[in-house]
Every structure is written in structure tokens, then in C-alpha cells.
Amino acid sequence: MRKLTKLKTNIDIVYNSNIVEYLDADYLYIPMKKNYKTLVKTNEYVYKGTILLEDNLNKIVSPISGKIIGMTTLNVDGRPGNAIVIENDFKEEEKKNRKYKDNKYDRDFIISRLYEYYFKYVASTLETKKINNLVISGFDDEPYIQNNAYVLKKYHREILEMADILASSFEIKNTSIVIKSNNTDNIETFLSKIGTYPNISLRLIEDKYLLATPFFLLEYLDLKDIDSFVIDAKTMYELYNAIKYNKFTYETFITIAGPSLVKSMVLKVKVGTLMKDIINNKFKINNKGNNLFILDGLMTGSPCQIEKTMVTKNTIGLIVIPDEEIKENSCINCGMCYKICPVRVNPKKVMDTGVRSSNCINCGLCSYICPSHINLRAFLEGNHE
Ligand code: SF4
Ligand code: SF4
Description:
alpha/beta, 3 domains, about 25% strand
């Protein structure tokens, strides 16, 4: 079996035990995607659920009701991009143009509902693949990010019900909920609930980095990709809302954590909320010096400006740490970067030759392990200064 790494987290973070919500920002920012047609104009009123952008297969809807007040340039998932700005009227008026008869959870109903609510990947996988093993992952990879573990804990009833619906509608033989063996809280929760679902089992895994990646998780569980499907807890909860309650994903879960904060939290926020609004309204910064804001985690994320960064459906969180300059020293040829790489890339060779590898999965382990603090990931991405 592949040797995976346990990451050391040397910062003690106390998380709020409940999920905190921040759903009432004055303005939301919706990224304008390449090749998408914009369907709204400045000064137009939009309802929650109004389609703002579309391409042939996907549609992006407004998470609030309010007025479009223009466009602006922001950081969209780590890159500069344009966004539609919506002024919130706080009425949460929802566009009601869909009428449904009673839900009957059979195969065709679920697939068509998932396409309708833009879970294209899940829908097409269920449609085209005979699944024998459904694996629900209730953990995250990045240190300090706790979204899936929190969602699993808070919405375990919904997730179990959804798993049961999928298992019976698609005749899935084995369904398992996967939890890290050091998450005793979630283990206790599931041991007390899972008895009601005899076809769902609990599987415990070690606290090793990259197991939230389906490829590595299936390999660890000794399952084959050909008849298995991994869905994380957050997505299961979104599927539940779409299938049972005809709800779009207007909100998402993110973790904001780090030693510069008085308290670290998992939050439920509207898609499109500016990070600066979340920090100003929900967090206290305890470090008086300069702080660095890292979007989407220490291992694979990148520094961002919170006044220019919005939450998208892909955002997992923000890490706030003191901005101390880390001095890179010369390579000492220790070989540790090569030894730790899970896909056998030689990062030192990439650094020396400038020839990048298409096998690199950008996991950040080589930078994490390097005793000379060399930002090898930047060489792998071709942007080391
Ligand atoms: S970032 Fe790329 S080269 Fe570095 S350890 Fe991960 S996969 Fe290997
Ligand atoms: S881990 Fe750092 S110091 Fe060691 S060989 Fe790789 S680049 Fe050089």
C-alpha cells in the first residue's frame, strides 16, 4: 500500500462547537465564468434563484434577492476575474417557477433532479456507472479545515437518509461512512444512529494527508474505482436539499482558522460573500502585527487579499497566520522531497531543470517537508520568483 503522511499541526485551535452562520452581507459577488452568457443587467431586480449566468449545461443562480448594481474585478478561486455585484434587500424573495408532484425516489427521478440542480458530475456518474460501493467521506485533508467533519456531525440524519435513498434507488450493495479514527465525537454520533440503517456501515481510517482525495481513499479502502463512488459529506447534504426539498445550493460551509484569530470556526455563508465582510463581522484578530490570509488551506492554498476575495462553491476556507518572512535556504540534497511525494515526482529535479511534471497533483507535501524551506510547489507550478 502507498505510504501516506500524517501532517503535524503545531497550532492549537479551539473551534466553536456549533456552526455559525453569516448569511446577511450587504453585497454579494457572483463570478462571471468564461463562456457563460450573462442574463441580467445593471439595475435589474433579481430573486433568490433567478438565473444570472448560463452555458449549454449549467446555470448560476442568485443566492439572494436584490438589485444588480454593476460588475467588479475580484479574486475568483485564486485568479483575477469579474463578478456581478448584487445589493441585498434582505427579503430573501425566492423565484417560484418550479412545480413538483410528490417526490418518488426512483432512479429516473433522482437523476433528472440532480441535472436540474446542476449536480452534473454526480448525476452522470449515477447514470452511467454500476455502483457497488458508495463511500461517504466525512473529513477534510487540509490542516485546520473541518467542513466535512462538521457537516457530518450536524446533519448526520439527513446524510444517512440520503445515503439510504441512493442505496435503494441505485441498488448499491455497500454504503459506508468514513471517519478519521481520531474523531471520537463523530464516531460516537454515528455508532448511536447507524443501527437504524443496517445496510450502512462505519469505516475508520488513519489521520493521513490526501485521504480526502477519492483516488487515495479508494486505494486505502481496497476498493476499485470501476464500481465505487466517493461523495463528501458536504455534497451529500446538498444532494439531500435538492432531492427532498427542491433547494438550490445558495449557501456553503467554510472554515476560517489560524493562530492570528481569537477563535476558529466553521461557518455557513452565502456563496458570493466577501471574505473581508466575514472576518469583520464574525472574527477578532488577536495578532497586532501584519497577518497573512491564505485561501483554501496551508498545503494547497495561496495568499489572498480578503477585500478582493469572495466565497465560491469551491472555497473551503481561509487560514490567518502572522506574516513572518520565511527565509529559503540552499538545497542540502537531503532527498526528503522526493521521498515524500505520493506520485513519485522528483521536485528537486524540477527546481534544478525547470522542466515541470504533469504527474504532480499539487499536494504541497514537498514544500511542507523541505528542511531548507524552499517553496517547491512554486517551482512545480512554474511561478517561483
Ligand atoms: S506538490 Fe507535486 S511534486 Fe510536490 S509532493 Fe505533491 S505531487 Fe509531489
Ligand atoms: S527537501 Fe529541500 S533540501 Fe531536501 S533535496 Fe528537496 S529541495 Fe533539497
